[in-house]
């Protein structure tokens, strides 16, 4: 098991990419803290891990709340004895409207969760990663953090910010043996694309808008997260790995 005795936190671990990453980590021997704002889905992820023989706890966390993020880190280290891996995965989309029609309140909400949440995760995890002698942080950006899309202004901006924040943190903390990378998923079969699936006119195009001509699965993204968290990625930091079926080139 490639993550044996490692301790990991996965935010947004109640469903989709976060759930599959948490399950994969546990299968590879890690002790996992599942963080999510939704207690029911977060506890379900923990149950799936425990039923398969893994070790996990749930901590309800609103990633835009600094006190809750600090409590997440503290609970993890107090329970498991340290921290080696952080996956800043929690995120939301925005209403599909022109930027001039997007409310200021929704803009702030998306930026707070998608970008400030990553900042807070890094801010409070790094001191514990230093104590562990290093570790890995993986941030969930997006294909739409690498190229623009109409009606996604807040999401575009927040995910582009994650890409640059990842590079910043990699430069700042590499000397402590802390690697910081991002993944940039394309269209993945999670709840965030439910509205697109209902659009009979656009979905046939959206679902094939990449080199492979299909959408991806949460498992496929979790594989990339696992790789970046493992020692197999020991000389990779500051990178953004596209997991998009070639969507960036399409």
CATH topology: the name is: Rossmann fold
Give unreliable regions as ranges: none
What general form does the structure show? globular
Count of separate structural domains = 1
Strand segment count: 7
- Walk across the major sheet and give the strand order: 3-2-1-4-5-6-7
SSE pattern, N- to C-terminal: EHEHEHEHEHEHHHE
Query: What CATH architecture label applies?
Result: 3-Layer(aba) Sandwich
Strand content: 15-25%
The level-1 CATH class: Alpha Beta
For the terminal residues, how far apart are their CA atoms? 36 Å
Please compute the radius of gyration using only Cα atoms: 17 Å
Total of helices: 8
Quaternary state, please?
single chain
Structural class: alpha/beta
Biggest pleated-sheet summary? 7 strands, parallel
Mean pLDDT: 97
Q: What share of the residues lie within helices?
A: 40-55%
**Please, what is the CATH homologous superfamily?**
NAD(P)-binding Rossmann-like Domain
Produce a short descriptive summary.
This protein is of the alpha/beta class and 250 residues long. The protein has helices spanning 16-27, 39-51, 66-80, 104-131, 153-173, 194-197, 203-206, 218-229; strands at residues 7-11, 31-36, 55-60, 85-88, 135-140, 178-185, 240-243.
